[in-house]
Every structure is written in C-alpha cells, then in structure tokens.
C-alpha cells in the first residue's frame, strides 16, 4: 500500500490507495493470463508545418521503426510485449479510445518521448522534451513537471484559453500520468484519450495509475 500512496503523492492524483491496489490486481491478473505481440513498427501521421502538429488522417507512406531507437534484442522484445499487454489490459478494463506508453530517451535530435506501445488511431511517435513544446503538449508538460494532467472536458478547457495539442479532433477528454523509476525520477508518461467528456472517473484514473506502477519494470534498455 505504501507504493500506491507514494505514486499518488508524487503524481498529484486524487484517488484512494485502496482503489489503486484493486486496479493493480486487475492489471497483474491480465498480464498473467494474456500476451500481446511487441509492436516494432507502426503507421504515423504527416506532421504539420514546422512539425508542430499531426495532420490527422494523412499517414506517412513509410512506417515508423522502433528498432532505429531501441536495439532489437530478445530482452527488448519481451519488454515491448509486456508493455503492449498492459495497453490491452487498460483498454479491456476501461474501453478508453486511445492509450499509449512513452519513454523519455536520448535521440540524435535531443531528449524525446518515444511511443513504445499503444491502442487507437495512428499518432506521432516522438515528442521533443522542451519548454517550447510544453506550451501546447500535455505529454511534455507531464514529463517535465512529473505531475498528472487530467482534462475531462477539452472543449471547455480550450474555450477558457487553455493551449491544447490536437491530434484527433474527436478527443474530448485526456489524461497524462508520469512514470517513475526507483529513484522517483520521471522517466516517461502514459497518455489516455476518450471521445466523450467526463470519461475519466476515479476508477479509471486508478486503473491508469496502476498501469504506471507496473510499466517502469518493462521499459526497454
């Protein structure tokens, strides 16, 4: 229970530790009973001018290859398979429309969030971890602040003047949560999106947090 309470405290989420523990059991049970294949390549959208946003519905001809960023070793095959299974667990227990796992990694273009596993529509694979990109990206705000971001009504948030990076215009609610290593450093995030407002109640937030507790042990080297 201490680990549950610590994650809640670090991330700033408002959920009960007991509920988080229940949801972690669901994730672990799913992991024991199911296996999803590692996703070493996936389709990605074209980027807009300056690469600042995705052109939803317009896909690049060439798929994105994870092996250009992660060694295609047996250990990483296992890790990516486990991460994709966690994605499947979250989708099965929440019916969320989009869910992705990102790891902060050094690249030739600087430190970026790299998408390792996901469910849903194609989306950009990399997010530069910079203050400039944080201005409109919940993903980057989350990894830089190491705090949860929950927007349960995106249209209202934007109407109030909130900056929002739009990939899929159908998305009405979004949650980004940090991933922590054993030293309590933020090493990545999860991103969940729903096509209905007020989708992320305490039970689903606890499920997402449970995934965040389990994910770090399976991040590739």
Instruction: Report how far the terminal alpha carbons are from each other.
Output: 28 Å
Q: Mean pLDDT, rounded to whole units?
A: 93
Name the CATH class: Alpha Beta
Assembly state: single chain
Strand order of the largest sheet: 7-6-5-10-9-8
Poorly predicted runs are none
**What structural category characterises the helix and strand content?**
alpha+beta
User: What fraction strand?
Assistant: 25-35%
Rg is: 16 Å
In the CATH hierarchy, what is the architecture at level 2? Answer: 2-Layer Sandwich
What characteristic shape results from the CA principal axes? globular
Question: CATH superfamily name?
Answer: GAF domain
Q: Could you tell me the CATH topology label.
A: Beta-Lactamase
**Major beta sheet, specifics?**
6 strands, antiparallel
- Strand segment tally: 10
Summed up:
The chain is α+β, with helices and mostly antiparallel strands. It has helices at residues 2-11, 17-33, 74-94, 131-134, 138-145, 154-159, 202-214; strands at 41-42, 45-47, 54-59, 64-65, 98-107, 110-119, 126-128, 149-151, 173-180, 186-194. Strand 2 (45-47) and strand 3 (54-59) form a beta hairpin.
Give a description of the structure:
This protein is an alpha+beta fold and 221 residues long. The protein has one domain (2-218): GAF domain (Beta-Lactamase), CATH 3.30.450. The chain contains 7 helices and 10 strands. It has helices at residues 2-11, 17-33, 74-94, 131-134, 138-145, 154-159, 202-214, and strands at 41-42, 45-47, 54-59, 64-65, 98-107, 110-119, 126-128, 149-151, 173-180, 186-194. It has a 6-stranded antiparallel sheet, sandwiched between helices. Strands 1-4 form a two-stranded antiparallel sheet. Helix 2 crosses helix 3 (74-94) and helix 3 (74-94) packs antiparallel against helix 7 (202-214). It starts with a helix and ends in a 7-residue tail after the last helix.
